[in-house]
Structures are given as C-alpha cells and as structure tokens.
C-alpha cells in the first residue's frame, strides 16, 4: 500500500484532534509542524477545568460562542507553554482560520496555513495572510482512515486465506473461515 503524503498525514492528525473538541457547533483540530515534526496540537473547547459546551450548551454572544478557545489558539498556547519555537512552522487546520486566529498565526511566525475545509473565509484574513507572505493552501482530507484500515485488514485476511488454501483446506472449509472473518470486520 502506498504511504500518504506529508500534507495528508498532518491533516489527518488535525482531524483526529478535532474528535476531542467539546464544541457542539463545529469540531476543529489544528496541528503545528516544524521540519516535518509535530510540535503541538489543539482542538476547540473550553478553558482547562471549565464548563464545556457539550455539557451546558454554548455561551453565545453576537452569534459566536465565547466559551470556546479555538483549536489554532490552543495549539499556539501549547507551544508557548512548553517552549516550542513557532518561527518558520506550518499549521494544518480542519477549517479555515477565523480572523483572530489568522492574526495570532501571523504574529507567531508561522509561514504556511493548510486547511481542509472552507469556513467563513474572511476576506480580511486572506488579505492579512497575503500581506504577511503566509502561504495558504486548501488541502482536503483525501483519505477515509477507517476505510483504509478496513481495506488493509481485508488484504491481510486474503493473504492469510491464500496461505491456508495451500494447507489443503477444502474450498467449503475455506469459505466458512472467510465468511466468519468477514463478519468480524
């Protein structure tokens, strides 16, 4: 099986991080990368020890949940907390960054933003990225990870059954084992 590209690898990590989101409106994940190494990750949710939207609902002011810290900010704060340098780094985000996150990304020295999905792409954010010479690239997630894993298991089982066939199992016995294994997938 062919390996996934670096962009897909890091974008997949961001999607994985988004599964930890406690926001009921939009689950977002962000991965900060330097020299092809993950240095931080974040997802949108409440402050440490705070009330989460999944528990008490969103706290919305002006059509924006003010309880939530965005994934990009959480990833940047993780870098600050643990002393990871963001200069010349890249960020992979499941959704296009909001205007506030855009400004924080620029100020942190990140040089490239890769996003999987459009989400309220603010024209001024795009303009700021251009002014700051930050590369912005749409990188949709190409892989359904669960489907890839299932295909990998299926291929491994086929190889196993091929070797079992060499052990002189009858076709009926082999079909029975194959049917049982398929049900396990």
Automatic annotation (TrEMBL):
Its cofactor is Zn(2+). One of its GO terms (molecular function) is zinc ion binding. GO terms for cellular component: cytoplasm. Residues 5-132 form the CMP/dCMP-type deaminase domain. PROSITE patterns: CYT_DCMP_DEAMINASES_1, CYT_DCMP_DEAMINASES_2. It comes from the Bacteria. Keywords: Hydrolase, Metal-binding, Zinc. InterPro entries: APOBEC/CMP_deaminase_Zn-bd (IPR016192), CMP_dCMP_dom (IPR002125), Competence_ComEB (IPR013404), Cytidine_deaminase-like (IPR016193), dCMP_deaminase-rel (IPR015517), Deoxycytidylate_deaminase_dom (IPR035105). Pfam families: dCMP_cyt_deam_1. Belongs to the cytidine and deoxycytidylate deaminase family. This is ComE operon protein 2. The lineage of its organism: Bacteria, Bacillati, Bacillota, Bacilli, Bacillales.
């Amino acid at each position: 099986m062919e390996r996934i590209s670096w962009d897909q690898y890091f974008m997949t990590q961001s999607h994985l991080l988004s599964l930890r989101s406690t926001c009921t409106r939009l689950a977002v994940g962000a991965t900060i990368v330097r020299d092809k190494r993950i240095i931080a990750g974040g997802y949108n949710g409440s402050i440490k020890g705070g009330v989460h939207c999944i528990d008490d609902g969103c706290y919305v002011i002006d059509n924006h949940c003010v309880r939530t810290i965005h994934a990009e900010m959480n990833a940047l704060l993780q870098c600050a907390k643990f002393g990871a340098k963001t200069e010349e780094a890249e960020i992979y985000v499941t959704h296009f960054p909001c205007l506030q996150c855009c400004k924080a990304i620029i100020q942190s020295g990140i040089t490239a933003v890769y996003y999987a999905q459009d989400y309220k792409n603010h024209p001024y954010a795009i303009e700021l990225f251009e002014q700051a010479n930050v590369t912005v690239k749409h990188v949709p997630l190409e892989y359904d990870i669960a489907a890839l894993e299932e295909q990998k298991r299926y291929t491994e089982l086929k190889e196993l059954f091929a070797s079992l066939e060499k052990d002189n199992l009858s076709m009926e016995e082999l079909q029975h084992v194959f049917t049982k294994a398929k049900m396990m997938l």
